[in-house]
Amino acid sequence: MFTRIWKDKNIRYYLLGGGASKLGDVLSGMAFLFLAYDLTGSKILTTGMAIAETLPYLLFGLIGGVVADWLPKKKLLIVLDMVRIPLIFSIVCLFYLELLSYSYLLVVSFLIQCIGCFFNPTHRTVLPTITVEEERTEVNSLNDTLTRGVTVISPFLSVLLLNSYGVIHFFTFDALTYSISAYCISKVDIKERKQVVNKSVKNVFSSIAEFASWAKAHTSVRKLFLFTFITVFFNTWVWEVGLLLALSEMSSESEELYSIIQGVFGGVVILTNIILPFFLKKMTLQIHLVGTMIWGIGITYYGLFYGINHFFIGSAIVAIGLPIAGLSRIYLIQSLVPEDKMGRAFSSNAVLLYFSNTISLGIYGFLVSFISIQKLMLFSGILIIITSIIGLLLSMYRTKLRWRFIINFSK
């Protein structure tokens, strides 16, 4: 099945370009933090660098979706990649000229992420134009497998680069991946419909408002965004902070254990991605909710059994639910949203995720000062499960009412 998909030139180049670009992004993301700390020795300023990598999506994410819907996708993607090459490579040049400063690093990090606000939704909208609906589950699965695989191997590659060339050449490698991405995109035949749009600053905001009204009127899309926001909110702190803090209470090797858990998590996600298309060709909101429920069961398992060995098991359960929820979300956006609105749909989804991440870290960071980590984990998992069950029951009830209407109408 995957062999047949891979033989398609458009899909192959799309996946290879996206995988290369993702690998470069992961490495440069680490390098910005490493260099920020090397230059300043300040934890606060290093945190500022991390904020510079997320803030652009909250500021410009929605605008990026509008641009993705307006402009020719292939040309836009290639131009954005070509702009990123000299921008990222300038860090290497200034480093060797001994002119690199924290402020310049901060500006470049911010600009690179701003470009990502336009690149990412545009890249996402390409896939429906080069596939038919029956292929999308498989292609999305391959894409996510490649992305997860890159995330898993990036720590090993980073160690190799650090030992051989130094952290500065993370950026050299990133510039190379942008070149590969641009080349691969140039090989993809993208079928696009020409749009006649009055492109102005005023229309940017009216386009965002138009999509918001459209999404509000479409129940499935509205519910998808809502359930995604809730699940990510209850998951983010538990995975990114809570698990590490819990491990630090239990072992002096918390960082090593956390890295191993991430490796197990990534491996199970990849395995789930590979297996899933053999059982599911089409995704529904109900499948998405089943995925979030499994996700919630994994987090609940953390809280119930609260121990190092059980964290591995809980992470494996989450790693089954997460790709089911994630792939179904992407599939539903690709299937339910018209082509001329898809960029805004993906950018809205990304902004919701970043916003949910941000408030989750802030609220839980406050709650953990007087509520135990175990209780927060248990509370989070149970609420995800309850939300998913309510969503499934409401969905089943609506389906039952629809069938009753059809039967009564046909009498």
Automatic annotation (TrEMBL):
Provide an example Pfam family for this protein: MFS_3
Q: Which CDD domains match?
A: MFS_MefA_like
Q: Is Repeat tagged as a keyword? A: no
- Report the principal subcellular site: membrane
Q: What is this protein called?
A: MFS transporter
Tell me the InterPro entries matching this sequence. Answer: MFS_trans_sf, TM_effector
Question: What stretches pass through the bilayer?
Answer: 12-37, 49-71, 224-247, 259-280, 287-305, 311-332, 352-371, 377-397
Name the Gene3D superfamilies for this protein: MFS general substrate transporter like domains
Q: Where in the cell is it found?
A: Cell membrane
Task: Kindly list the GO CC terms recorded for this protein.
Answer: plasma membrane
Entry membrane topology: Multi-pass membrane protein
Annotated keywords: Cell membrane, Membrane, Transmembrane, Transmembrane helix, Transport
